[in-house]
Specification:
five-stranded mixed barrel, eight-stranded mixed beta sheet, alpha+beta, 19 strands, OB fold (Dihydrolipoamide Acetyltransferase, E2P), 30% helix, RNA-binding, BirA Bifunctional Protein, domain 2
Length: 433
RNA sequence: UCCGGAGUAGCUCAAUGGCAGAGCAAUCGGCUGUUAACCGAUGGGUUGAAGGUUCGAGCCCUUCCUCCGGAGCCA
């Protein structure tokens, strides 16, 4: 009885009889020969069905197997005579497990985005989407390995929150047993509490934004990792961020070369992602804009997608932009002692126009200053009493950041749009499948 | 919410205001080394919806719907 082998492991079974189970990708016939391409999620293999090597019934059946039918093929593993290093299966038996109930909608030719997104549950089977799923999984694993390996404790933040934490984003409102509750836009405030408990904390989970954003960089539901470290300042935060991104890039390069090849990613761009990253101030960024086609840029402006691209294109690796004007930033950032109009914050802009993938900074740890900031932003003080407690009971300098997983995956894979980086995207006009 | 673009066969797209088409997919046939195979044949349409102009509308006009790209907002 032939052993069931995953296609990805076939090279270890050359010359042996094995059984492969999967879905029909392609079928090419030439009279007395069928080339049956089977996919099982770990790879694809071409099964060669020669009329003289199988029963007449098997040969006829093999020639009629529809796209995405589930099949079992038993045969001998051999090297492709035309492609050294590529292995195929000399079929002896072919069994149909399940024929498609109807014609498979995704044909080998090109399709429009909307059609593919409507069929996302099937589109995931394609080699490109398969490669993206695997890179995403690798990045998620790298995120955990990085922080776990540096003594961080994973502290899960809640999804339901009682109020609009930062007051800067539009949130999804839900009914919580008669009260209003909101889907979280960030776990950061909770991580500040966690940092006082475990020193180095991080959370990693879904995050929700209800803004009606319609761009290649936005999702309504996305995943964010947010480390927060006690007794760390902005300098340490920037160091952590660049070590973190370099770690992720290296991990993907080391373990997902095949997938990056399928995605036709220029890996030389990723190989340059080594710490330290260039660091510029917000004011230097404005100057770069003024000198590169945005003469209207002035201090006080925030950066849009175009501006981020202009800045990031000046560098061959991610660039850190730090010390933005306080009025552009959330209430919780610490003011720069050297210039109180500036925040001790930083954004990391990914290369090649992928935009902001990290935002963070040092938090305000002075109770009175924080109270004034909450008043200045006209936020409900009572909702932040627990947060202010963190300054009342042993305040401590601390910093952290948030990294958007989807933008990181899009950048790593060289994708045009974040909708392909998450298995089932939630967007302004998309809630299904 | 605003600006721009698009909606025609299952899919991707053609069609001067004058017979609604092609490629792929599907079905049938041919071929012993194919790689989005190739060759031949067959079936496949409420042209997003409603109204209007016209002898005649896929095409022009009005309204609406859906999607795409961007802006704003944001990660």
């Amino acid at each position: 009885m032939a052993e069931h082998v995953w296609i990805g492991d076939l090279r270890e079974h050359v010359g042996k009889d094995v059984e492969v189970r999967g879905w029909r990708n392609h079928l090419r016939s030439s009279g007395k020969l069928h080339f049956l391409e089977v996919r099982d999620g770990t790879g694809t293999v071409q099964a060669v069905v020669f009329k003289g090597s199988v029963t007449p019934e098997t040969f006829e059946k093999a020639g009629t197997i529809a796209q995405e039918a589930t099949v079992t093929v038993r045969g001998t593993v051999s090297e492709n005579p035309k492609k050294p290093g590529v292995f195929e299966l000399q079929a002896k038996e072919v069994e149909l497990y399940a024929a498609p109930a109807r014609e498979y909608p995704i044909s080998p030719k090109e399709h429009g985005v909307d059609f593919l997104m409507d069929n996302r549950h099937l589109w995931l089977r394609s080699s490109r989407q398969n490669a993206i799923l695997k890179v995403r999984a690798t990045i998620v694993r790298a995120v955990r390995d990085f922080f776990d390996g540096r003594g961080f404790t994973l502290v899960d933040a809640p999804i339901f929150t009682p109020n609009a934490c930062e007051g800067t984003s539009t949130l999804f409102e839900t009914d919580y047993h008669g009260d209003k509750a909101y889907l979280t836009q960030s776990g950061q405030l909770y991580m500040e509490a966690a940092a006082a408990a475990v020193g180095k904390a991080y959370c990693f989970g879904p995050t929700f934004r209800a803004e009606k954003s319609k761009t290649r960089r936005h999702l309504a539901e996305f995943w964010m990792v947010e480390p927060e470290v006690a007794f760390m300042d902005l300098e340490g935060d920037m160091k952590l961020a660049e070590d973190f991104l370099a770690f992720i890039a290296q991990r993907v390069l080391e373990t997902r070369g095949e997938e990056l090849k399928i995605l036709e990613r220029d890996t030389s761009k990723l190989e340059k992602v080594i710490a330290p990253f260039p660091r510029i101030t917000y004011h230097e960024a404005i100057q770069i804009l003024q000198e590169n086609g945005h003469p209207e840029a002035k201090v006080g402006d925030d950066f849009g997608g175009d501006e981020e691209t202009v800045i990031s294109n000046k560098f061959d690796r991610p660039v850190i932009v730090h010390r933005y004007p306080m009025e552009l930033k959330a209430f919780y950032f610490k003011k720069d002692p050297a210039n109180p109009s500036l925040a001790l914050n930083m954004d990391v802009l990914a290369p090649e126009g992928y935009g902001e993938i990290i935002g963070g900074g040092q938090r305000e740890d002075d109770l009175d200053t924080l109270v004034r900031a909450i008043e200045h932003h006209k936020l409900p003080m009572e909702a932040f009493e627990w947060y202010l407690d963190l300054r009342r009971y042993g305040s401590f300098p601390h910093a952290g950041f948030g990294l958007g997983i989807e933008r990181t995956v899009a950048w790593t894979c060289g994708l045009h749009h974040v909708r392909e980086t998450i298995p089932f995207a939630r967007m302004l006009n998309r809630l299904s499948p």
